[in-house]
Each structure stands twice: as C-alpha cells, then as structure tokens.
Amino acid sequence: MDNLREKIEKLLLKVKSPSRYIGGELNSVVKDKSKVDVRFAFCFPDAYDVGMSHIGMKILYSLKNARENWWCERVFAPWTDFEELMRENDIPLYGLESLDPIKDFDFIGFTVQYELCYTNILNMLDLAGLNVLASERDENDPVVIAGGPCVCNPEPLCDFIDLFVIGEGEEVNIELMELYEEMKKSGEYTKKAFLKRAAGIKGIYVPSLYNVSYLEDGRIKKVVPVCEGVPGKVTKRIISDLDKVFYPESFVVPFSEIVHDRAVVEVLRGCIRGCRFCQAGFIYRPFREKSTGTIVNEAKALCESTGYEELSLASLSTSDHSDIEEMLTEMTGYTEGERVNLALPSMRIDRFNKNLMEQLSKVRKSGLTFAPEAGTQRLRDVINKNIDEEEIMSACRTAFEGGYAGVKLYFMMGLPTETDEDIIGIADLAKRIADLYFNMKNRPRGQKLSISISCATFVPKPFTPFQFEPQISIDEINRRQKLLLDNTKGKRYINVSYHNYRISILEAALAKGDRRLGAVIKRAWERGCKFDGWDEMYRYDEWMAAFADTGTDIDFYAHRAMGSDEVAPWDHLDYLIDKSFFIRENQNAKEGKVTKSCREQCSGCGVNKASGRECFG
Fold first, then answer.
1. H-type helices in 385-469, by residue range?
2. How many CB atoms lie within 10 A of CB 481?
3. What is the C-alpha separation between 87 and 78, in angstroms, rounded?
4. Residue 474, SS3 per DSSP
C-alpha cells in the first residue's frame, strides 16, 4: 500500500482538488485488515464534494463501521483529470481509507440519488476493473448493490446491479451483511445462493430472479419471479422510531470545502403535504419526527466532534416539525452560546410566521427561499400545493418586515394542465410581491429588492399521481421559457433562472424507464457520457445517439402518457401506497380538486395503524 500511496501522491500534484483522493480526514475510520471479516466499498457516483455532503452516506458509513469486524470505506467518482491519470498509470478505483482496490472487497454499494449519475456507476465499476454487466461478473467478484431514492424504479440499472435495497437502509443493510458473513463462515457461500437467500429479506430486490415480458406495442406485460421463495412484490423497509435509530456522533471532516460543509441533523422523515408532483413526499412516507431532545443532543455531539461552526436541520419539510418553535428555542440557546450558525432549509410558506422568523433572524440574515411551484391558484390546486396567494403574500410581508430584502421563489414549468396564463402568472406573482415591498412603509432601508425566480422543468416520477403524465417537448419548454422572460423584461429586481431542459428530458426517460434502457445507458457510457448531471459535462447529442444506436425511442418513456391500467416498470415494488390512490389523485388533479394534507386528515401520523399502509383518508 505504501508504494501505491506514493504513486497516488505524485499524481495528485497534477490535479485539481487533490484532497479528494487521498483520505486521512478527521474522523475517518481505519481498521486492521487482519481483523476484518466483511469489507464494504460505499460508492457515491458523483464528485467527492457532492458525495461528502450526503447525510445518508454519513449514517451508513458510521453504522457499518460500528461493527469491529466490518470495514466500510468511502469511494467517489474521480473527476476527469484524475481518472485520466488513473487509467494511464493502471491505478484501479480504491477505498479512501485503505487505498486498496475495491474489486477485492466483499460488497460494492452505490447510493443512487439522481438518474443522471447512472453512467458514473458504470464508469466506477470499469475503473475498479470489473465488468459493468452483472451477468458477466464471476463468483469471486464483489456483490454489487444499490439503494437510494432512484431505486424506487431500479429497472434501468438491472443489467449492472446484483441486488437493490428498497426503502430505508439502516436495518436491512445490517441483515444483508450478517447473512453474507454467516454464509462465508459456514462455507455455504456462493453468489447464486447468497442472492437467493437475500431475496427473502424484506426490502431486498434481486432483479436476476424476475422475468419481464412485453406486449407487442412495447408496454410491459408482466413481471414475475423465476423461482419459488421469491416474493411477487418487494416491500420497502421503514424505520419506525427515529429516536431509537442509529445516528452518528461524528462525521468525516474533509480537508477542503464541500457543497454542504457543515454538521447536519436529520429532524424528520416523510412529508405531510401530498404534493402530486413530489416523489420524495411519497416514497419517504410515513411521516415520523425525532423528539426535540434527540435533535438537540445529536446536534451538540456533532458540533463537538467535528468542530463545525454551522449546523443544518435537514428534512423534506423541517418547518413541519410539530415542535418547531420549541426546538428552535433550544437549538438557538446552544448555537448562540457556541457561536454556531444554524440553517433551516425546507421552509414552508404556510408555516412561516413572525415567531419563526424571529428565531431564524438570531442566526442568519441571508435570503429566504419559498416554493409556490405554480404561478396561479388554479395550477397550485392541480398539483395539490395546499397554499393560496394570501399565504404567499403573508410570508413575504413577514420576511420584509423582519428586515429581509430578498426572496427566492421556486417554480416548475410544464406541469400537467399548464397554460400560458399559468406561465404569465409566475411573472405576475413576482410583480405583486415587488409591489408589496415597495408599498410597505417599514420595509428594509438601504437594501435593493431581489426576487429570484428559479424555474425547473417538470419531470413525471414513479410513485406519484403524475407518474401517468407525459413530459412536454423541448420545443414547448423553450417556448414557455421565452414567454416567462418576455413577461419579466424591464424588472431589474426580478431575476429568472432555468434548469437545463435537455437534462430534464433524459431524467424523465430514465425515471420511468424499464430494463431495456440498460442498453442505452451502457451505450451512452461507451460513447463517453459521464457526470451527466453537470451542465458542462452533459452530452445531449451523445445520449440521443445512444438511443438511436440501440433502436430505443426516448419519446416512448419521456413524452408518452401511461394508462392507469398499464403495468408500470415499478409495479412489482411496494412502497406502501396503493396504485389506486395515485389513479384517484391523478383524476382529482385533472378536476382541480384539492386533497387535504396528512396532518389535517389524521393528526400527522401518516399510517393506518391497522394495516401499516399509508392512510390518505
């Protein structure tokens, strides 16, 4: 290893951000290999700066390393400058803690957070010296697994992954690794036998044990197990009590700045809202909270062990915590005394009030971010946003009265039933917020108003009421973007930004794709595609060529409406929400009917106690 370390260190003099590739950070875990029975390479298929910010990786890294005879190491996608040097110098992909090649580990595990990282998964397997196709890896190769939000539809990745972890990973990862250790020690282990037994663990999906057949028109006919003892439906795993679940007392602290360079405490999981476009709001249900005491204790432990001077309270909807004001009172009591800056992302418009603003004002004075999502009330009702314009204006008024002179507003373009009136409504709403500011006698003085409009292109996602909907075409996205710009001209205080709509179209195809897209992903990677989520790296023309090379129609996946009776690629996975609910909510959307939030229906529990399934009234 010393020779490899020396070789790597020499090469790092030639690359940007060399600290990404050498390990040795504060709180990283190094173990004696001779005392380790199971080795796990935890791979984040994006740059170190992004992956080191991910809370799920921090949790599972510490959880696995809590076992004395298990060793989990971190692996990130090397940026192109270092990858080139690795290939030129025959350096295989390695774990940061040991610098050992990950092809010698027992498990290679990917957390899949974004569809546009799929080619990076292939590239990392190839850099490791492994065949990218699961069917062509042999008995002695590591078991390649994947989890994360994107595996709610794992089908496009089935050619490359041995098994998927469906749902929350803390318990099921332990069970999986215990099974592996048991079979290895007993001499029963073969990869085939392990995968068959693993398929019996709740939350484990082994794609090679299922067969997919298709209709003549290209739609899926059925997905069925190929042998006995394999469940027809794989049910996601959930953690029932967040106060008792494992949470790290320390994080690895990087040498250089990363995207979210701070301590992070998870305050809740799930969401009470039921926005019809939001995949996370459904796949992370049920709604569960940590108690204020647990949150404060975890925050103190992390700040003390890492030395971070910034702390974030993270979740899908932090301000929906039932004890948010008391929690912030306790947190600010600690953070003010320790001179720690407190960040509270995920602000909900209808939960933002004077008391909450006063708590936030003690610790930060940056711009506030709200998400109206749509420019008119009609379209907000279609997407079930459950806020009205009065609440939007009230939140902005409270912010301006509290000394804020800037707000950032998130919207989506291309939502189902959207019209030009809805696009113009985005501009009109921003103008009304500006009028509110300029007409206030007690508005902030000496500051320039800034209203930032960030407009993403709608992507229909599995396990949402809009999974049946098509995405609008490139030409139509382009036309609507121009319409919005035309309606904000001359307003210097309004700034409009967009996501790359060509990326959004590929995201839609991969999100709703089936196993046949594996050939497209492999061909795109062979054509040089990687880091596709980065604007400067995305090669749209190469992806379109990959679709053409494989005879695959991207419109079939991205721009085609799915029938409610159609077998979706993900229908054999059970995320505890019946498909009939999504069908009903899709119809409610078309009729502009609003469905009450979970909290209004059942006091925020989110689960039918009798059946354990989601309760939506």
1. 389-401, 420-438
2. 18
3. 11
4. helix
Q: How far apart (Å, rounded) are the C-alpha atoms in residues 384 and 588? A: 9
Q: Is 232 exposed, middle or buried (0-12, 13-18, 19+ CB in 10 A)?
A: exposed
Residue range 42-74, pLDDT digits in tens: 999 999 999 999 999 999 999 999 999 999 999
Q: What is the three-class DSSP state of 40? A: strand
| pLDDT tens, residue by residue, 114-166 | 999 999 999 999 999 999 999 999 999 999 999 999 999 999 999 999 999 99
Q: For residue 243, what are the contacts with CB-CB under 8 A and spacing of at least 6?
A: 290, 291, 294
Per residue in 183-195, pLDDT (tens digit) is 999 999 999 999 9
**What's the rounded Cα separation, in Å, for the pair 132 and 118?**
12
Contact in structure between 296 and 340 (CB atoms under 8 Å):
no
- What backbone torsions phi and psi does residue 551 show, to the nearest 5 degrees? 65, 35
H or E element, residue 290? none
Tokens found for residue 551: 């005879």
Using the 8-state DSSP alphabet, how is residue 83 labeled? Answer: H
Q: What is the DSSP letter of 59?
A: H
How far apart CA 356 and CA 344 sit, in angstroms, is: 10
Question: CA–CA separation, 595 vs 198, rounded Å?
Answer: 39
Q: Given 3-state DSSP classes, what are the helix, strand and coil percentages for the chain, each rounded to the nearest 5?
A: 40, 15, 45
Q: Which residues contact 235 (CB under 8 A, 6 or more apart)?
A: 166, 167, 202, 203, 574, 576
Q: 209 and 199 in contact (C-beta within 8 Å)?
A: yes
Let me know how long the chain is. 617
Separation in Å, CA 124 to CA 79, 238, 480: 11, 29, 38
**Distance in angstroms (rounded) separating the CA atoms of residues 250 and 57:** 13
Q: Which residues contact 99 (CB under 8 A, 6 or more apart)?
A: 1, 4, 5, 8, 23
Burial of 1 (0-12, 13-18, 19+ CB in 10 A): exposed
For residue 24, give both structure tokens. 């040795």
**Angle of helix 389-401 relative to helix 420-438, nearest 10 degrees?**
30
The packing angle between helices 540-549 and 501-511, to 10°, is 40
Pick from 157, 137, 138, 159: which is nearest to 147 by CA? 157
Burial 133-147 (b: 16+ CB within 10 A, else e): ebeebeeebbbbbbb
Asked whether the beta carbons of 390 and 436 are under 8 A apart, the reply is no
What is the C-alpha to C-alpha distance for residues 381 and 12, in angstroms, rounded to an integer? 53
In whole angstroms, what is the distance from residue 262 CA to residue 53 CA? 8
Residue 330's H or E segment, with its range, is helix 324-338
Distance CA 163, CA 151 (A): 10
CA distance 361 to 353: 12
Amino acid at 135: S
Task: State the amino acid at position 144 in one-letter form.
Answer: V
pTM for the predicted model, two decimal places: 0.94
pLDDT on residue 353: 75
CA triple 222-227-230, angle to 5 deg:
80
pLDDT reading at 608 higher than 50: no
β-pairing verdict for 220-225 and 406-413:
unpaired
Report the candidate in 536, 543, 393, 381 with the shortest Cα–Cα distance to residue 474.
543
Which pLDDT tens digit goes with each residue over 456-491?
999 999 999 999 999 999 999 999 999 999 999 999
Q: Which tokens sit at 295?
A: 């949150």
Residue 371 Cα to chain centre, angstroms: 18
